[in-house]
Design brief:
There is one protein chain. About 45% of the residues lie in helices and about 20% in strands. The strands form three sheets. Strands 4-3-2-5-6-8-1-9-18-16-15-10-12-13-19 form a 15-stranded mixed sheet, with helices on both faces. The chain has three domains: about 55 residues; about 220 residues, Endonuclease Chain A (Endonuclease, Chain A, 2-Layer Sandwich); about 160 residues, 2-Layer Sandwich (Endonuclease, Chain A). It starts with a helix and ends in a 5-residue tail after the last helix. The protein is built from 19 helices and 19 strands. The chain has about 475 residues and is α/β, with parallel strands linked by helices. Strand 5 and strand 6 form a beta hairpin.
Length: about 475
């Protein structure tokens, strides 16, 4: 009798039982977390249909850490100050004392929501400049960095070690040698290609640089799914930048696969810069354990212009999906039009319903996404929504000139939002994001004109054409959508 022949079935039986128990426990955990039914069902299917691989996916991408508060903001001095100001502004709003502009007053529910869900304080007297492409953005950033006298703070999802990246690094090193404080955060996954040598050279040059949520197996494997997608620069507390443009040559030169990378950014001056500074310093505390509260980092400024801005941050550290809620409130408040540009269109059920409801209610709803995408699954998932959107009266367009990477929402010539947030599950619920909500007719009209210009480089999708697409593509779209809550 050969014992291995007898033991093999027993071992297989034990392993199968252990695996089944593990799957059952994970499913029970997912159910008890009270996630959306869609996410619960999606993860259950992944675990059941992808033996072994499903568990690995869950470990890396499925754990719900929002309740754990990856960054505990409460207790931080800057957070407490913002909370106090927000509470005061909420009271003024309820009394009708915060502003007199009738158009802005019509959108006061958006402002109140952002105050309540994320302490996004209302800042007045700001200067806002829309930067419509990579060249315009980097020209403005470089000039601002070169003029820095006291400090420079940068935070990027992708900071490439390429031509534009090295040009900016050279400026940072020069400024550090002049005594300017330079602090820099890069996302560990987004900027994965940066080597230890890069970090060492920066620190040797006097630049404080940290990597956000390092992914080193087995540590932090559960947090690989929670990325810092923000793009922030603050110089001397006077000028700030945010938007969708990472530091990479493709935003200026394009690339062979996709052509130009079409994107937008904002340059801010005024008290909105201090609000943006708070977002950066909260992230800096997380990566360095250094809490910075010195008033010199929050320069009080005279009015630069008359723009009203709310800087809104959201992520796994937030009590609410603040930016998604802001989008929802803005869309449902629309009277005339809602224009959206996004590289990935995988909206939550609430945003999907808001867009369809607005269109069916007579609002002109238009959405531009790229015809080509840098992500295979998201390409087909985005397209899975097109039929029902067109049926609801939404006008859908494919951008033709290159890869549309803009993250923009503009409504009724009064509200515009530009930032790092895509219209998808990941941006709404998992990534650390930041957007500026600008309440101003001049800026909204400027953004609307940019959107209309992009329409000229896009083609509208009509239902007759869409129904004729191959069945194989329809199947890919359906399967991709099934996994969209997990992306």
């Amino acid at each position: 009798m050969e014992y291995p022949d007898l033991l093999a079935p027993l071992i297989r039986s034990v392993l199968l039982t252990a695996y089944s128990i593990t799957i059952l426990v994970i499913v029970i955990i997912i159910i008890l977390e009270n996630r959306s039914p869609l996410k619960t069902i999606s993860w259950t299917l992944v675990l059941l249909l992808l033996p072994g691989i499903g568990i690995v996916f869950y470990i890396f991408f499925g754990q719900n850490l929002r309740k754990e508060k990856i960054i505990a903001r409460k207790g931080l001095k800057n957070h407490e100050i913002l909370s106090s100001i927000a509470l005061s502004q909420i009271r003024k709003l309820s009394n009708g004392d915060l502003f007199e502009n009738r158009q802005i007053n019509d959108k006061r529910k958006i402002i109140t929501l952002l105050l309540n869900n994320s302490n996004s304080i209302v800042t007045h007297g700001n200067g806002v400049k829309v930067l419509n492409n990579g060249s315009e953005t980097f020209d403005s950033i470089i000039k601002t960095l070169q003029a820095a006298r006291h400090f420079i703070h940068l935070e990027y999802y992708i900071f490439a070690d390429d031509e534009i990246g090295r040009e900016i690094i050279a400026i940072l090193k020069e400024k550090a040698s002049q005594g300017v404080e330079v602090r820099m955060i890069v996302d560990d996954v987004g900027s994965w290609e940066l080597k230890n040598k890069f970090f060492n050279e920066m620190r040797t040059a006097g630049i404080e640089i940290e990597s956000f949520l390092q992914v080193r197996f087995p540590l932090f494997t559960s947090k690989v799914n929670y990325r810092n997608h923000r793009k922030i620069i603050i110089v001397d507390g006077q000028i700030g930048f945010l938007g969708g443009i990472n530091v990479a040559d493709r935003y200026i030169k394009g690339d062979k696969s996709y052509g130009i990378w079409r994107d937008m950014h904002l340059k801010l001056q005024g008290d909105a810069v201090s609000a943006l500074q708070t977002v950066f310093l909260t992230d800096w505390y997380f990566v360095s354990q250094e809490e910075i509260t010195d008033p010199r980092y929050f320069s009080s400024q005279k009015p630069v212009s008359d723009k009203l801005v709310q800087i809104t941050a959201s992520g796994p550290d937030s009590d609410h999906p603040a930016i998604m809620m802001g989008f929802f409130q803005a869309i449902t408040s629309a009277q005339d039009y809602v224009y959206v540009a996004t590289p990935y269109f995988m909206p939550s059920e609430s945003i999907l319903l808001a867009l369809k409801t607005a269109a069916m209610g007579g609002v002109d709803v238009r959405i531009i996404i790229p015809e080509k995408s840098d992500a295979y699954i998201t390409l087909y998932c985005s397209r899975s929504y097109i039929k029902e959107m067109i049926e609801s009266g939404v006008k859908f367009y494919f951008y033709q000139k290159g890869f549309l990477h803009s993250k923009m929402l503009v409504i009724d010539d009064i509200v515009a939002s530009i930032g790092s947030t895509n219209m998808d599950f990941r941006s709404f619920e998992q990534n650390f994001e930041v957007n500026a909500f600008v309440f101003d007719e001049e800026i909204a009209v400027d953004v609307r004109k940019t959107f209309i210009h992009d329409l000229k480089d896009s083609r509208q999708i009509n239902m007759a054409e869409w129904k004729k697409r191959p069945k194989t593509k329809k199947m890919k779209e359906s399967f991709a959508r099934l996994f969209s809550p997990l992306l």
